[in-house]
Write a structure and sequence with these properties.
mainly alpha; 19 helices
């Protein structure tokens, strides 16, 4: 499958996944709200989710793919045996980690939640939601096997299964008898169990989907693969990487712990969580599809010591990521509050809906750096280097924690909640800079001037479109009095005008990446 065709298939799955995921977010917000119950659920559910986003979703997959790619060079039989051993070792490790995490659920919750009633509810949900870590891990490992086999789209549809199950769970929850106003002490046992078990069932369904997809690829699990001593071979091959992966995870969890504690202290867990989900939407649709398809290519080039091909894919990825995400960054910065006010009002309090948008707008500048640092890390992982990404992650977490501490010291209330997203984006910028310097030291010239020129062209067109959008936003805000009508008009006119002006500006400036993308789409 060509890069363009594979990328298009993954992007389509990403669009459906993120749209259905956004619908799930709205329904969960409507069912649980953004007060104490919503914060308890989102705070606990964020733990396995962030493990997935920060570790499993990128790091583990990026580390496993090069191992499996190199094994394929030694023949089909050896590759199949090695793959099965890697999967078995991963399942055993995931089961152990998940069991220990669930046993520590009360301690984990106590570190974040101070209110006794909220802590009791969060502890129950922790027991029900933390097993997601195992199913997330299975999803990632099996997806990596599929990607090495050049099967990208099927795994990309797995989150849709999760979203459908959670939406069905919320429907059942809404039909259950219970109090009109939810509080940690008033929720019934049936309500707690339904939302907890249903959420974890969604991740289990996601794992089942990719397992079925692997079977359709004619991969057959051999129960003759024994845990010991045969699985020791891939474990031994991965030991040099494992220590740094664990260090990466530990560093990430320090950042997560501090973020969640500050969010709980300022009653902003749900606000932060929903803003973070919206931040991830364009990344999941546009960037993840590019990175998913590029990772096996980069790994194969690294395995054959074709360093020029690795750098070419790095530069190509940086160019297309910048072209896709810089316009989205400008749009999110200008239209984020109008969008969230329009779609969240009626499901959460109006002030909370607007605050989600403000948080999205203020943190949008980190979108392109986030995608870039994920791409840079994939290059290091392609060479089985897990130490350097851990160093980059240390830079990012240090930057994030420092920004959060300053924000908590200088600001109060909702400003601190907004700064949580800003701190994450500052961390991505620091990580992208550190990643570039480390890649430059190892590989020499990276062709960054080409990527920078592409970013400059797209940035110029985006700023021109942004100026036109800002003018439209200012006029509608000044002339329309009704809140919902004003936000709807702002969003509609701003979006249409911004797209039209951007396309005209892009044509006048000349952005070859857009022409190339249009040509590839026509061919597919």
């Amino acid at each position: 499958m060509s890069l363009a065709r594979a990328g298009r298939a993954v992007a389509l799955a990403g669009i459906v996944s993120r749209v259905s995921g956004f619908a799930r977010t709205l329904v969960v917000a409507a069912v649980l709200g953004t007060a104490a119950v919503g914060d308890a659920y989102n705070g606990v559910n964020n733990l396995p989710n962030m493990v997935y986003e920060l570790l499993l979703g990128s790091v583990l997959a990026s580390a496993v793919v090069p191992l499996l790619t190199r094994a394929r060079r030694h023949g089909r039989k050896r590759s199949r045996e090695f793959t099965q051993r890697v999967m078995l070792a991963s399942i055993l490790a995931l089961a152990t980690i998940t069991a220990l995490t669930v046993l520590c659920a009360p301690l984990i919750v106590r570190a974040f939640v101070t209110d006794s009633e909220q802590r009791h509810l969060a502890t129950w949900w922790a027991y029900l939601l933390l097993p997601q870590i195992f199913f997330y891990g299975v999803t990632v490992v099996v997806s990596a096997v599929l990607n090495v086999r050049d099967s990208f789209a099927t795994a990309a549809w797995a989150p849709v299964v999760n979203n459908a199950i959670v939406l069905a769970t919320c429907a059942v929850f809404a039909l259950l008898p219970g109090p009109v106003t939810l509080t940690p002490s008033s929720m019934t046992t049936a309500q707690v169990l339904t939302i907890g078990i249903g959420t974890t069932a969604g991740i289990a369904g996601q794992a089942a989907w990719v397992i079925l997809a692997l079977r359709r690829e004619r991969f057959r699990w051999s129960w003759q693969v024994r845990p010991l001593p045969y699985t020791w071979r891939p474990v031994r091959a991965g030991i040099p990487m494992l220590g740094w992966l664990l260090a990466y995870a530990a560093i990430s969890q320090i950042g997560v712990a501090i973020t969640m504690r500050v969010a709980f202290d300022h009653d902003g867990v749900s606000i932060y969580s929903y803003a973070e989900l919206l931040f991830q939407v364009p990344y999941g649709i546009l960037a993840a599809s590019v990175l998913t398809v590029l990772m096996p290519r980069i790994s194969r080039a690294a395995a054959h010591h074709d360093h020029s091909a690795v750098i070419a894919d790095l530069t190509r990825g940086a160019r297309y990521l910048s072209t896709a995400l810089i316009p989205i960054t400008i749009a999110m910065s200008l239209l984020g509050p109008a969008f969230t006010t329009l779609v969240f009002t009626g499901r959460v309090a109006p002030d909370a809906a607007q605050l989600i948008g403000i948080a999205v707008a203020c943190s949008a500048f980190g979108l392109a750096p986030f995608a870039l640092v994920m791409l840079q890390m994939r290059v290091f992982y392609a060479y089985n280097d897990t130490r350097t990404p851990t160093a980059i992650n240390l830079v990012m977490v240090t930057t994030k924690v420092t920004a959060i501490v300053f924000a908590a010291t200088l600001f109060d209330g909702t400003a601190v909640v907004v700064m949580l997203g800003v701190a994450s984006s500052l961390a991505y910028v620091a990580g992208a800079v550190a990643g570039h310097l480390l890649l430059r030291r190892r590989h020499g010239l990276l062709g960054f001037s080409v990527a920078a020129a592409a970013a400059t062209r797209v940035g110029t067109a985006s700023c021109i479109a942004g100026a036109a959008t800002l003018t439209a936003v200012a006029l509608t805000q000044a002339t329309i009095g009704t809140v919902m009508l004003r936000q709807m008009t702002t969003l509609t006119i701003g979006t249409v005008l911004g797209i039209v002006v951007f396309l005209f500006a892009a044509k006048a400036i000349g952005i070859p990446e857009l022409r190339t993308a249009r040509t590839m789409l026509k061919r597919t």
